[in-house]
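Note to self: keep these together.
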Amino acid sequence: MSSPFLTASQLADAQALLERLIGEHKPGYALQREFQTDPGLYQLDLERIWRRGWLFAGHTCQVKQPGDYFVFDIDTDSIIVIRGDDERIHALHNTAATRHESLQAESGHVGRIVCPYHQWSYARNGELAACGGMTRRRPRSPRLQPAPPARSRRGWADLRLSGSGSDPVR
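Structure:
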């Protein structure tokens, strides 16, 4: 898995720093400052922990009815968690297919998801519903990019930023 912001060399440097810091750590003492401030260690943390497993995004009571949504942000990923017309929880990247504008803010209810820039509208499942004035130049991928898996379990809305990883303890 590679980071979108660090080169392979920078990630190798971060790994070496991590190993050095762990080797120097004294039990009973606070972690060294670099654990909180080093951008390479931050990327390793994202890739090895946050992007591998299921994440608690919110409660299902936040999306009771079809069209109810909230936005979940982690690092540079902004995800719309929405109750679909099929009554299931869905996750879509909060980015328009055209100019990469954010589509929704915080939480609410929508009949359709509308791009604030071009006014393109998307159904609750991410399919392009209407794109007034743009019929000649449709994007190659007109639907909203679906985020990796989302699910509801025991009142929780969970999602996973990578397509693989382990399930949490049941």
